[in-house]
């Protein structure tokens, strides 16, 4: 990483790190927007980060943990206070316990990150504002400056690795912790249309079908928080039939939706499904984080070929819906 400067200002209570990259601004922005890429540099070497949530929108939140060499975890969060897409974001940066609650013994900071064109590429300026001198000194003594510098030193490799995040790659699953799985897919189409395709029954019936040979005779969409939805699939010509139902818990169009999901006719615990849509250069980054009641249930569901079925549906979304709108 071409590190331009590191400036500690004890009077202003700030730490500012400036770095230049030989790529367009949008490529660097997308590296911060995609949790898969962000994980590859935000944790310093030896302490990789795992993002369990990442909503790069005003009012959004990111939650993550860094795993040390001995398996110990340090948890943190960002609350997005302002986002100017492609140019800057401002977050409240803090620490949490393993339960996700803010750590009362640790300070919260204001962190701003600006993305600008620069000779030969782009410049990223990250400024952290501390609430007091004692907080600044405490975090610097913990190695915050060295950690941020070493983390950002990994950005070059992420920016060079375009193949891992290309638009022609299939849906990919990553296990998060003991009970979660994250499925990510770059969908060729604008965020607004991808959101619409998830909430218009006529469109859903055209693409959310999984493997060929199935129809969707029941498609009841939840319109408001607290509403329930119901989807049922049936083999063409009649035969096997199954479905899912659940409740809409959170909706922030066109970027985030949280629902529960339970297979119709079963009494087992529901999953929690968190859908995030983020605009990137090649379309929309679709990320679905599913939380299962336990690891065994997660493994059993993944073994059914769930991700392959999702990929078939997402490919159909591109070809049968987005390409024809």
From TrEMBL:
Gene3D superfamilies: 3.30.530.20. Residues 23-159, 190-319 form the Activator of Hsp90 ATPase homologue 1/2-like C-terminal domain. Pfam families: AHSA1 (PF08327). It comes from the Bacteria. Signal peptide: none annotated. InterPro entries: ASHA1/2-like_C (IPR013538), START-like_dom_sf (IPR023393). Belongs to the AHA1 family. This is ATPase. It comes from Georgenia wutianyii.
């Amino acid at each position: 990483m071409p590190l331009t400067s590191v400036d500690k200002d004890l009077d202003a209570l700030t730490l500012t790190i400036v770095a230049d990259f030989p790529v367009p601004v949008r490529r660097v922005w997308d590296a911060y927007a995609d949790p898969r890429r962000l994980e590859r540099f935000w944790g310093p070497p030896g302490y990789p980060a795992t993002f369990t949530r990442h909503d790069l929108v005003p009012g959004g939140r990111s939650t993550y943990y860094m795993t040390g060499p001995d398996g110990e975890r340090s948890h943190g969060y960002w609350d997005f206070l302002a986002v100017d897409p492609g140019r800057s974001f401002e977050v409240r940066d803090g620490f949490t316990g393993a339960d996700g609650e803010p750590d009362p013994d640790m300070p919260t900071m204001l962190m701003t990150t600006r993305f600008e064109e620069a000779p030969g590429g782009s410049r990223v300026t990250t400024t952290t504002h501390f609430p007091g001198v004692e907080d600044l000194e405490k975090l610097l003594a913990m190695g915050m400056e060295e950690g941020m510098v070493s983390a950002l030193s990994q950005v070059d490799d992420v920016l060079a690795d375009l193949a891992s995040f290309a638009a022609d790659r299939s849906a990919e699953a990553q296990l998060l912790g003991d009970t979660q799985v994250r499925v990510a897919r770059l969908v060729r189409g604008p965020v607004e249309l991808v959101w619409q395709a998830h909430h218009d029954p006529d469109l859903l019936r055209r693409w959310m079908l999984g493997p060929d040979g199935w129809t969707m005779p029941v498609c009841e969409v939840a319109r408001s928080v607290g509403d329930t939805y119901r989807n049922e699939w049936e083999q063409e010509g009649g035969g096997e039939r199954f479905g899912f139902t659940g409740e809409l818990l959170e909706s922030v169009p066109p970027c985030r939706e949280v629902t529960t999901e339970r297979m119709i006719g079963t009494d087992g615990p529901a999953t929690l499904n968190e859908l995030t849509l983020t605009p990137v250069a090649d379309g929309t980054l679709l990320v679905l984080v599913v939380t299962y009641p336990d690891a065994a249930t997660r493994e059993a569901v993944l073994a059914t070929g769930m991700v392959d079925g999702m990929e078939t549906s997402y490919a159909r979304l591109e070809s049968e819906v987005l390409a024809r709108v």
